[in-house]
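Homework help board

Subject: predicted structure for assignment chain

Our instructor gave us this sequence and asked us to write out the predicted structure in token form, then describe one feature. I got the tokens but I'm not sure how to describe them. Can anyone check?
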Amino acid sequence: MLSSKLHSIHNSFQLSQLQIFFILLIIILAGTIYFMCRPRPVYLLDYACFKPPATLRVTFSTFMEHASQVDFFDEKSVKFMMRILERSGLGEETCVPPPNHCIPPNPNMESSRSEARTVIFSAIDELFSKSSSIQPKHIDILIVNCSLFSPTPSLSAMIVNKYNLRSNARTFNLSGMGCSAGVISIDLARELLQAHSNSIALVISTEIITPNYYAGTERAMLLPNCLFRVGAAAVLLSNRRRDSVLAKYRLMHLVRTNKGTDDKAYRCVYEEEDSKGNVGISLSKDLMAIAGATLKSNITTIGPLVLPASEQLLFLLALARRKLINPKCKPYIPDFKQAFDHFCIHAGGRAVIDELEKNLQLSSGHVEASRMTLHRFGNTSSSSLWYELSYIEAKGRMKRGDRVWMIGFGSGFKCNSMVWKSIRTVKTPVTGPWSDCIHRFWLGDGD
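My token output:
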């Protein structure tokens, strides 16, 4: 009796061949959908930074001598710029384009194009020489970001013309997005690489400063003259899984924060005319406060993605204490040193680096790459993050599995950040922007 019941139960669980076929078909379909829909990896194959020639260097004395000899600066303006330079964190070897060496500066469309061709083509040429397996004909996506110089034809068209890119390559030109546009370009590349399989993307980040020399006396507009310098970076990205063997880094996270709905944030970096009709970039006194508030919003989003559970718990407990018990309690600042091995903070100026070092409770070693980049190259806008990453590699610090946090700030106002994971230990490069000063710009920490 019992055995017959067990036998009938056993038979009820037996599947027909047709049922087995449909189950296997469902498993295969589910697996196919999973592999098709999962995010494609974004690999950083390599990158290169423009290395300006020594002929473009402008010392403090040269900068001030030229400023004192032009008619549109009065004595107060010259003294103001001297104070800014002395406190800026810039060194004596930063570079400006040829028209800015003239007395008076002589910016025009052709000289602006000349600067663009010099910095962009130099970075791309070095990148292709380093990545011999990738040639211009392999580029599927081209993205160029330059905030203030937007000629016709575009800078992306200029690159297509120079390197004979394929006619079906997808090209994009981003302008007006400030110093954080480099991260925005990587974000756009990431989205396009998710949509198009087996693709290679070339991203160019630069700022052409020739046409943006301010010839007036408004102090808020004189600051860019003192801080911005020539620079460019070319970055090669891929979503092909076979490229993981060749790649240096993998993109892990990217978070963008925009405070443009707030009027003060929107106008804190603003291109406008002064009372005499001179066009310049005005930097508000509220800039640092707005940058700090925007950073807090950004790290609130990126924190849960990267911080260990212990840090997230401490943050939540501190937040609950402020909300429920004592609103005056100091907010808990998570220890991001537990999540990242290296920090690349936009080298916008010494005050920017000081503020982030303080707010994120970093050591001088964590912000060394940012300070040295500012000292050697000045504020190169959206490309500064790549000069900093190059500095870390030049010191032989990048090990397999290390995580890098890049933080950029820009007009609008925006704070954008991205996280890279090193796929392999990066060998100390023999070329690059730091190759001529490998022993002169170290802090002497024994590395």
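Reply (TA_rk): Your tokens look well-formed. For the description, you could write something like this. The two ends are 81 Å apart (CA to CA). That's the kind of observation they're looking for.
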